[in-house]
Write a structure and sequence with these properties.
The complex is a heterodimer.
Chain A: E1 8-17, E2 20-30, E3 34-39, H1 46-53, E4 61-66, E5 81-84, H2 96-107, H3 112-120, H4 136-148, E6 154-158, H5 166-181, E7 185-189, H6 193-199, E8 202-207, E9 210-215, H7 217-221, H8 230-238
Parallel strand pairs in A: 3-7, 3-8, 5-6, 6-7
Antiparallel strand pairs in A: 1-2, 1-4, 8-9
Helix pairs in contact in A: 2-3, 3-4
Chain B: H1 2-13, H2 17-40, H3 53-63, H4 67-84, H5 87-94, H6 98-134, H7 146-170, H8 174-193, H9 206-214, H10 226-250
The chains are: A alpha/beta, B mainly alpha.
């Protein structure tokens, strides 16, 4: 079994918002030295699950741990986990560099670290511009730069490729592969299955708030007639979940 | 906690909001001080004669009177803005101990209130002292209990800044927080505080308690003694801070 170091473990996570069951008993693991893709249709519970891992949303039941601890129990979480959320997180009137320096101060990193991650994420030229003027791809690079501030051994990224141009996607792919080969843990969600197929060592597929499959693409495709592409595997495993909303699927509500 | 407070100060100084509020409060101080001097010095004017203690207290309280409410607006807009712009989530990723983040925000906007009050007081004095001197009115900062009034202005702006931060965390949105604050302070409370039948308890309302602290007397409004006004205002701020903290601790950031 997995030791705690570097492991992301979701155990029977349940979360409802009012009548809507977003996550309905989801368990999976993501380990160090690998890139794990977290896949699911819109509304399948990916974002809620990632936010439970990151301590931003409190699960109704079950537990989410990183390196053996709940996020809120980590003594210095910025040095353990780097996270990209799916929704901004920038003040439009603050420059990218000032944004990073705020979180350098909060995390206790040297202020020069902001310039390092700006360089690393290809934003050095736009560092002093206000985020208001950033393109979607630049915001995504800034979110990634923020995640890298504490040089963390674990990355949890919600649709990190969203809005990136081809150069950006190539850069991100290289970065995540490098992180995994350094023995770090990378968990990212995505809808771009062709991209995932190139990048991910492991795939976790969630449907209607539950685990629909976990393994390598080859493992998930085992039993298929032909060497199945990830898209076929994904569509087969998530079939029957309708539009992906757990709430609209009879019997999917948490009991 | 020191790191978090440093981060909150950095947030405040890297956007324009604080600067606009500072300019607005300084403009308020200059405008109202000039008005109070012009009209207050006439017979039957708005304020008691400026040679009297009451007249001088009213002059200072009116002059720097924008600092407190604007400190509250700053705290409310900034903290509610954290949720609006979702920077709260980024902060909680670095520090999942949300109570400490709230504590750092309370400290930050308390200090911001002090800065606003000092700026307003400086502007008010820079206009008042030469003006009165030119007209041969003797005024001493240490006389007539004027220092206590100036101190009261600073304390009240500090406490109101922290109260605003608490309200910002408690309110659903940034616009709700700021609009409800302005409507309360400039519409609801002035109306209610002039109702004589209610004057057994209206002095305990937060804005009237703040006026008690600075002795910003308005005709027909009963005020608490400065010390009691300060205690009551601090109790309101503590209640808002506690309620805002509880909301922040329980909130799901989706």
């Amino acid at each position: 079994m997995a030791g705690p170091a570097g492991w992301i473990v979701a155990d029977e996570l349940v979360k409802s918002f009012g009548q809507v069951a977003a996550v309905a008993g989801l368990s999976f693991r993501a380990g160090p030295g690998a890139v794990t893709a977290f896949l699911g249709s819109n509304g399948a519970g990916k974002t809620t699950t990632l936010r439970m891992l990151l301590g931003l949303v409190a699960p109704d039941r079950g537990s989410a741990t990183i390196a053996g601890q709940r996020y809120t129990e980590l003594s210095d979480p910025g040095r353990v986990v780097g996270a990209v959320l799916d929704t901004g997180g920038f003040h439009p009137g603050r420059s990218g560099r000032d944004h990073l320096r705020v979180y350098c101060a909060a995390g206790g990193y040297p202020p020069g670290r902001a310039d390092e991650v700006l360089e690393l994420s290809g934003l050095a030229g736009a560092a002093r511009r206000k985020v208001r003027g950033y393109s979607l791809g630049m915001r995504q690079r800034l979110a990634l730069a923020t995640a890298l501030l504490g040089d963390p051994p674990v990355l949890v990224l919600d649709e990190p490729a969203n809005g990136l141009d081809p150069q950006g996607i190539a850069w991100l792919r290289g970065l995540l592969r490098q992180y995994a080969s350094d023995g770090r843990t990378v968990l990212f969600s995505s809808h771009a299955l062709a991209e995932v197929e190139q990048l991910a060592d492991q795939v976790v597929i969630v449907s209607a708030g539950r685990l629909a499959g976990q393994g390598t693409v080859a493992e998930l495709a085992a039993g298929a007639d032909s060497p199945a592409r990830l898209e076929e595997v994904f569509l087969r495993l998530t079939a029957g979940a309708g539009d992906g909303s757990a709430a609209r699927r009879p019997g999917a509500e948490s009991s | 906690m020191r790191r978090l407070t440093a981060a909150e100060f950095r947030k405040l100084v890297t956007i324009r909001l604080g600067l606009w509020i500072l300019l607005a409060s300084v403009a308020w101080a200059a405008g109202y001080t000039a008005l109070a001097l012009t009209y207050g010095s006439r017979a039957g004017g708005l304020t008691p004669p400026l040679t009297s203690a009451a007249g001088q207290h009213a002059l200072f309280a009116i002059g720097a009177g924008g600092a407190g409410p604007l400190a509250a607006v700053l705290g409310a807009a900034a903290v509610a803005g954290e949720f609006r712009h979702r920077t709260a989530a980024t902060t909680f990723l670095v520090t999942p101990r949300r109570g400490q983040v709230m504590g750092a925000q309370l400290i930050t906007y308390l200090v911001a209130g002090i800065v606003l009050a000092l700026a307003c007081t400086a502007v008010s004095l820079a206009i008042t002292l030469p003006w009165l001197h030119a007209r041969g009115v003797a005024i001493s900062l240490t006389g007539h209990g004027n220092l206590a009034v100036l101190g009261g202005i600073i304390v009240s702006a500090a406490v109101l800044g922290a109260a605003g931060a608490g309200l910002g965390a408690l309110a659903g949105g940034q616009l709700t927080a700021v609009a409800s604050l302005l409507i309360y302070l400039y519409v609801a409370e002035p109306v209610v505080s002039h109702i004589t039948a209610l004057n057994a308890w209206t002095p305990y309302l937060p804005g009237v308690a703040a006026d008690g602290l600075t002795q910003a007397a308005q005709a027909g409004v009963r005020l608490l003694a400065p010390w009691l006004g300060g205690v009551v205002l601090a109790a309101w701020a503590a209640a808002l801070a506690a309620a805002g903290t509880v909301r922040t601790l329980r909130r799901d950031l989706t």
